[in-house]
Amino acid sequence: MKHFKKTFALLALAAGVGIATQTHATEHGGDNIGQGSEGFYAGALPPAGWYGVFYGNHYHATRFNDGDGHSSIPSFDLKADVLAGRLFYMTDTQVAGGRLGFFAIGSLASLRSETPEGRARRDGAGDITVGPALGWENGPWHTLVAMDVVLPTGSYNSTRALNTGNNYYSFRPIYSVSWLPASGIEASIKASYTFNTTNNATHYHSGQLFHFDYSLTFPVTDALRVGVNGYLVKQTTDDRQYSARVGPDGMRGRVFAIGPALEYKLGSTIVDFKALKEFAVRNRAQGSSIWAKVVVPL
Question: Fewer Cβ atoms within 10 A, N terminus or C terminus of the chain?
């Protein structure tokens, strides 16, 4: 297989904003899932109307782990700051007994990296995600299905050390469920499975990914809720380049994260904060992130 400077992508934002950077790792090393961006009430849909959802994320990694969990890049350091917005339109239209909605997501990112090859920085737009959503309510159970379609509109050049776009399409079916009993407990899971197309600039095909965000929270006051959030990402198929398997293990990655979270309601506006630490990382960057999310009816 011809050797390239390969890419790994970092966590992104808001269910589909990808961030890609180049090191000696592979493109598999990240994704455009936006793991950690959701959690609270993941399966519950709002009343009909327009909504703006705004995300801010700071991610910092000081390791890139190999397939055995060992640090594989000396003096590795990566920082990513991302601002993203989701425009969501919820209708009263019924399909299969559920209510139909639509969304679009865009982002801006600032990336800084340091490896033995030197330092790099890139500021630019991320890929755009669009899709439909369909939700149901049955007593305390709220369920949602959706489809992310990630469009390769972000800034990308295969010769650059950092990219804010991934240069390939992704298709991601999503299933979310929230349990909201009268006691005030909130337990939610958002699960997804990602299919990627080939990056034609590098002939690299990133493997398929299973992912879920999770949340368990409790009310403190009518306005304040606290608990834990986190995520799991596990790659289920090999990375391939020129149709050949990449490395001895297909560069299959995984990561688990957990951390405290709180939500505060300011009238009709909802604000979430999370601090998440990554563990058990394979073939990916390992770090921590801070999330802020604001939901505003328009």
Answer: C
